[in-house]
Amino acid sequence: MSKSGVKKVVLAYSGGLDTSIILKWLEDEYGCEVVTFTADIGQGEEVEPARAKATAAGIKEIYIDDLREEFVRDYVFPMFRANAIYEGEYLLGTSIARPLIAKRLIEIANETGADAVSHGATGKGNDQVRFELGAYALKPDVKIIAPWREWDLLSREKLMAYAEEHGIPVEMKRDGKKSPYSMDANLLHISYEGYDLEDPWTEPSDDMWRWTVSPEHAPDDPTYIELTYEKGDIVAIDGETMSPATILETLNKIGGANGIGRDDIVENRYVGMKSRGCYETPGGTIMLKGHRAMESLTLDREAAHLKDELMPRYAKLVYNGYWFSPERDMMQAAIDQTQQVVNGVVRLKLYKGSVMVVGRKSESNSLFDESIATFEDDAGAYDQKDAEGFIKLNALRLRVAAKRDK
User: Residue 23: CB partners within 8 Å, gap ≥ 6?
Assistant: First the structure.
């Protein structure tokens, strides 16, 4: 019998140093069969080499899944219908990818008869929480193996020594030069942590950024784009219909070329510590601006304000890993109901790191009535005398309190 009765485990496997070591460690420590799962969620690197590495390691069951469309359609788009942003800054690029990976881990465990799943998240970060909350929500009795909470390989030197001892190949990137940062990438964003960023006073070097040009070096002429919305989701760019993943890929390229989407944040992790990270989210930055513009034209005032009140709670749920929770489902249902009328076109001006709304229209769902809003003669559409009673009624409690206090 293997350790803790584990016979087969599904490992979230990138093929990098950490998960390659975890693969060998699981076989040695647990004496179990390992199934590898590699997800393509648009991280911008080849995922097929992971198959060769897993094969070389003797793995018999290897899963490599292209999840890009599912990621944007079922996770990114619903989150952007909520205009979710954590602590006023973070567009939740890493957070929103974790429930999809957890879901697929559990699906593969069910398909292969595995009794455990494993991941490479450290014991200091949020990802361990996100992966495991998702896994438990979908398979309550699953065993989860988190090597970083069990082993003593807690430094890069120890990991490298373990790799050398067990013949695990270590590849250096970009002509032998490996980025010093801890990075995570998918179709929505790329993040950077560690190294000199651990000092929150240190400005990131310009050569750190991968997706965006510096705003100072962005084109001197603005770029105009038009986004077409149906029920709160973008369905076309400049009139060309595209799939969800293609839309985000396209916006990333356009935004990155215009220096859009860089952010430098000190955030509050769920596990209790503050963490400094830098993020590039060019497409997401454009999406948030465009969606709010479309809602400004089509959503009822109180519905829009209620959405804004719910948004921080929704964002915190995503950040903390509660995607598969009843409260997120409840809020999503309410949010999606409001999006039935969020249809139309938004025109945006992109210039040297900024996104400006310069036009919005909705043929069938606009609540903007020019005959009422005009500064010219409104031909009786709005009786300005009505405002007097409105103001006096709303001022009544203020006047009563003022008299009392006198």
Answer: 11, 13, 34, 36, 54, 57, 59
> Are residues 100 and 132 in contact, defined by beta-carbon separation less than 8 angstroms?
no
The string of pLDDT tens digits covering residues 155-183 is: 888 999 999 999 988 765 444 456 788 89
Give the pairing type, strands 233-237 and 223-230. antiparallel
CATH of domain 3-165: 3.40.50.620
pTM of the complete model: 0.94
Contacts for 135 with CB less than 8 Å, ≥ 6 apart: 102, 105, 106, 117, 142, 144
Q: Give the pLDDT of residue 165.
A: 92
Residue 42, CA atoms < 13 Å, CB-side half-sphere: 27
Q: Where in the chain are the domains?
A: 3-165, 182-361, 370-405
Residues with a catalytic annotation lie at 18, 98, 127, 182
Half-sphere exposure of 347 (CA within 13 A, CB side): 8
